[in-house]
């Protein structure tokens, strides 16, 4: 009897210790997640707070995050300097077009590498992988010279005797590179599609071939509808990277009105235009407060990333599912 009571006490003590350990683990895990989440979203929270903070709040040491003097002035100034809505519209049209071209061309290339055995298949795919590793800055000069005197197979020079057409400061370099699967991060997207198509059973295509479908018809009517997960992944990655890209846009379209270029020059433009927006002329010699300029710049950056934040909130569930189903995580 005494032994049974001792065993009962022992097991009750073990259960209590296990409950205490589980509780401490939950607390530790929650604190860790909250801490990491705070580090990640802190810059966004800070920019939101700055966007609605008045100039008078800058020099108030008691104000840390929540503004005391609420104002819309920073938002209106940042929108005026950025010419926000017209430029956002142009940027979205450009990004959507290049994203669709990139997704289509990379899907076709990935399908070819996955399903067709031709001489040099492995070597060419190795070259594709190398393009992921090679820094894009090393390709700057060849890309620039190619589109500075663009002449496809020498056809233009054959007819007019000149060196080619200058496509710099037009949308064409980005459109051409996107449509031919050599654009921004194209090697990674081809790899994603190839791995997905290799994982699909060949019986699907064989059934289509038996029914009389050709290679192109099988791709568009059978394989592509099954490639929704990698398609969503590639479209979202491509959209975000293209929207934020400053390398190709600076190289090919330095004179175009795009959000990434405008944000890159926002500090100098804010310093120049804030006195005008405050009612002072250029000849007055008035200089804007550097801290006020920094507030407007932070607000402009917040406005620039708002479309991406909205996109993520809408499609986050599909994005996570597509990552899991496309096989990227192994």
TrEMBL record:
The chain crosses the membrane at residues 20-45, 92-111, 123-145, 171-193, 227-244, 293-315. Belongs to the binding-protein-dependent transport system permease family. It comes from the Bacteria. Its main location: membrane. GO terms for cellular component: plasma membrane. It is found in: Cell membrane. This is Carbohydrate ABC transporter permease. Keywords: Cell membrane, Membrane, Transmembrane, Transmembrane helix, Transport. InterPro entries: MetI-like, MetI-like_sf. Residues 88-314 form the ABC transmembrane type-1 domain. It is a multi-pass membrane protein. Pfam families: BPD_transp_1. One of its GO terms (biological process) is transmembrane transport.
């Amino acid at each position: 009897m005494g032994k049974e009571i001792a065993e009962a006490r022992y097991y009750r003590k073990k259960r209590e210790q296990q409950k205490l350990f589980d509780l401490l683990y939950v607390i530790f895990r929650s604190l860790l997640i909250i801490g990491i989440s705070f580090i990640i979203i802190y810059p966004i929270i800070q920019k939101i707070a700055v966007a609605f903070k008045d100039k008078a709040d800058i020099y108030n040491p008691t104000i840390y995050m929540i503004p005391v003097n609420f104002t819309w002035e920073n938002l209106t100034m940042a929108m005026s300097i950025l010419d926000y809505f017209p430029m956002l519209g142009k940027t979205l049209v450009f990004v959507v077009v290049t994203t669709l071209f990139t997704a289509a061309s990379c899907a076709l290339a990935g399908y070819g590498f996955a399903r067709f055995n031709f001489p040099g298949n492995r070597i060419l795919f190795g070259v594709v992988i190398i393009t992921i590793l090679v820094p894009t800055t090393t390709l700057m000069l060849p890309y620039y010279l190619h589109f500075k005197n663009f002449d496809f197979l020498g056809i233009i020079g054959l007819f007019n005797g000149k060196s080619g057409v200058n496509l710099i400061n037009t949308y064409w370099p980005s459109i051409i590179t996107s449509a031919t699967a050599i654009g921004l991060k194209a090697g990674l997207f081809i790899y994603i599609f190839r791995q997905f198509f290799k994982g699909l059973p060949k019986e699907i295509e064989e059934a289509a071939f038996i029914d009389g479908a050709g290679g192109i018809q099988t791709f568009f009517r059978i394989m592509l509808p099954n490639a929704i997960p990698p398609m969503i992944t590639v479209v979202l990655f491509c959209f975000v990277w293209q929207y934020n890209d400053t390398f190709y846009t600076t190289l090919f379209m330095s004179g175009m009105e795009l959000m990434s270029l405008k944000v890159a020059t926002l500090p100098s433009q804010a310093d120049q235009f804030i006195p005008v927006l405050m009612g002072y002329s250029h000849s007055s010699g008035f200089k804007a407060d550097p801290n006020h300029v920094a507030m407007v710049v932070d607000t402009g950056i917040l406005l620039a990333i708002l479309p991406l934040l909205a996109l993520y909130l809408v499609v986050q569930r599909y994005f996570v599912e597509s990552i899991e189903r496309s096989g990227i995580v192994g």
